[in-house]
Amino acid sequence: MLKYLFGFILLLIQFNGFSQDTTIELNLNTALAIALENNLDVKSSNLRAETSDVEFRQARNSRLPNLNGNYNFGLNNGRSIDPFTNTFIEEELTFSNAGLALEATIFNGFQIKNRIQRDRFNLKAAEAEVEQAKQEMVLNVTLAYFQILNNKDLLRLAKARRTSTKEQLERLQDLNEEGQGNPANYTDIRGQLANDNSIIADAENSLKASKLELIRLLNIDTKINVTINQFKNEPVEYEFSADQVFDESQDNLASFKAEEFRIKAAEEDIQVTRSLYALEISFFAQLNTNFSSLATLFNETGTQVVETSQFVSIGNDNFPVLSEQTNFIEERIPYQDQLINNLNSNLGISLRIPIFNGFRAKNTVALQKIVLDERKVNYQRIVNEFKQAIQEAHNDMQTAHEKYIIFKEQVEAYSESFRVNEIRFNSGVSNIVEYIISKNNLDNAKINLANARYEYIFRTKILDYYRGIS
């Protein structure tokens, strides 16, 4: 990984200021470093892992109590209840309420604990899927890289083929102009040159297509060129059997690890749903207050002597009865004072006892068991698919190696045959048909050898991927 990052840093230094028309040189390590940074599949898997991380942190935070505040302020007209006196009134009223509410789960059948464990497994699975995406990206980039090398090699062979044809064409042209030789030989070799040009056009198109595929994987917008000879020229027979590759894949491939964590998460999900059967105990506490625009106080301002409706008769005279009366003044209670004076609180324990819920708990648990069984079936499917794919890749690798040896011997045989036929043709002993057949046999054998060589490399890279080696 460090070598990939180091290569990417170097590339950034070189890449600065490049335009679309600039061609950058890539080796395999640099290409892998760019892909790790830019590949869209890797980015998507990273985003899914970040989502799982948030869900895991949220599950852990669910242990904390809930604390919520509320506040409202309004105007009421018509018949209503004065929140200060709790009496009916029929006048305009300005009111306000405020409060705090605290709620904490004490016990709910270990639902929180099991959710945390479930989301922890889901997070580990998501992280394994990120590694899986990186492993697949490394394989795809490596194969695309070697496909470019293969196509470059084929283009080189096609150009060498044309060069040989041109040399023969020039020789026959000179003979034709001097009136020597068979004119048909000259026209036949011209036809062969046209065929060689067609092969070159196809090879160039294949090279362009393979470069576009690598550019897509790297998610860059510039032209590229890859360096050659990043591997041994002579393929060596692969030393691991299909069973050995499969055993290593189960230990090293993130695909298996991700599915194993998904199975564990599904097992925990069953425990989460079983909490629907359990008693739930919660603690609650509230603090409330209110305000009314009609709330008033009557403050004493002093006393005075006033006549009452009673009197006292003394003799024939009536004397009024005097009384001392306390005087008050009406005063609105301030907003803040009302909020303080009207404070009230409550706290307690609440119980939720599941008695009957339409078999929702039973059916939910049954559904989660089905999900778990599906996960196990999917895991077995992955095992079977990988086992078959590894066996097929191993067979293809062995076939490619056998073909490489066969085509190598074929190239040696056709090289000698062409050498002899070329001498015979140049000496006028054989005809152009024998020469062209011999030349095509050699050129095709070289193309088959190059294809077998890269096919073997492809298959070994795929097997290395299954072993968890990038």
Tell me what you see in this structure:
This protein is α+β, with helices and mostly antiparallel strands. The chain has three domains: 32-64 and 114-278 and 358-470, Outer membrane efflux proteins (OEP) (Up-down Bundle); 65-107 and 279-295 and 334-353, Single Sheet (Outer membrane efflux proteins (OEP)), CATH 2.20.200.10; 303-332, no CATH class. It has ten helices and ten strands. The chain has helices spanning 2-15, 28-38, 40-61, 111-177, 183-218, 242-252, 254-274, 335-341, 360-426, 432-466, and strands spanning 23-26, 66-76, 79-81, 88-90, 93-107, 223-226, 280-292, 296-314, 317-332, 344-352. Strands 2-5-7-10 form a four-stranded antiparallel β-sheet, with helices on one face. A two-stranded parallel ribbon has the order 1-6. The protein has a two-stranded antiparallel ribbon with strand order 3-4. α3 runs antiparallel to α4 and α4 runs antiparallel to α7 (254-274). The radius of gyration is 45 Å and the shape is elongated. The termini are close together.
